[in-house]
Amino acid sequence: MLAFTNVADVLGLPAKEAGARSPFGLIARIEDGLPIDALERVSQLLAPGDAHFKYRLVPKATYERRKAAHRLSSDEGTRLARLARAWSLALDVWQSEIEARNFLFRSHSMLEDKRPIDVVIQSEIGAELVLDILGRLKYGSAA
């Protein structure tokens, strides 16, 4: 359950919303549309010097529409939560935002020399590969 709390924290969901911090509560929040602020927050955490990073998750024209509506679509929220999950685990493994970013933004041989961040954004299967590598690092097996 802690992992879902961490994802909710990364997304900036209010701590007082206990329901949004459970697995099914988080699913419901994503389906209802995460606030656009969650995209801003995650983008700032992962790529603080890159004002365009958020457009890798939501194209610029779509972003402007979402900004007006103050909500992301379910698919965009799912992608964002996937990224928040990878960030949360990378931070747990590396214990440093700088080191977590270095891991996510540097090519990795177990990902065919792709950057973990790109693989996570690309697909759920890619995210599972990255989470597996992070799990191996955390629990001491080869990665």
From TrEMBL:
Residue ranges annotated for the Antitoxin Xre-like helix-turn-helix domain, each copy included: 26-85
Coiled coil: none
Domain Antitoxin Xre/MbcA/ParS-like toxin-binding: 90-140
Name assigned to this protein: Antitoxin Xre-like helix-turn-helix domain-containing protein
Organism expressing this protein natively: Ancylobacter oerskovii
